[in-house]
Amino acid sequence: MVVTGGTRGVGAGIVRAFAAAGAHVVACARRPPETPLPGVDFTLCDLRDPPAVRALFDELPRLDVLVNNAGGAPYRPLADADAERHAKVIELNLLTPLTASLAARAHLARARGCVVMIGSVSGTRPSPGTAAYGAAKAGLENLARSMAVEWAPDIRVNTLVVGPVRTELSHLHYGDEEGIAAVGRTIPLGRMAAPADVGAAAVFLASDAAAYISGASLLVHGGGERPAFLAAATVNKEKAEGR
To answer: Which family, according to UniProt (predicted)?
Structure first.
């Protein structure tokens, strides 16, 4: 199996989960991991280079699972950058999963395998400061549903819609420990996801237990976000807070 962007953060959590389940995992990214992951092969690849992506998959003897995890975006209000900069965000988060999926298609069809897209709650709600990223993730979820129809019955395609995840880069998005804890308190389960939570969900979607699941979006967000109007309203506060 292949995990794109599988060297740190959510990607590393996914890689560890599949390795623990006994899979032969190939992680690909533009940079090698700072600490090699046990039992995982690493391949250097710029996923924005379609010929390089095709070459990577052509060299594989077999492929059962592709996890399109590579992506991300810095905080950047729309008016603070030109269209070309925002287009690069869309390329990384939408076009590179398409490129990898197309390159992997023949392998996956022979193995009757599956694709797992790593989506985001940013694609299902307003995402101020990461609008291009949110738009790309919305497109990714739709792409997965269309792909699931076009490539059935040989290949299953699903999306994990992921909420905030605590990784080694969380400080870039949420600030210090106080900020991270405050964000966690906005989530009904009381904390951000760990990379292992996303990895476990990805393993499930790739497993025989999900053999009849395709074109689906599985929410991995700890219950979502508490509606802001509940905190602003001046009635029913005690009931809303469970007292």
So the answer is: Belongs to the short-chain dehydrogenases/reductases (SDR) family.
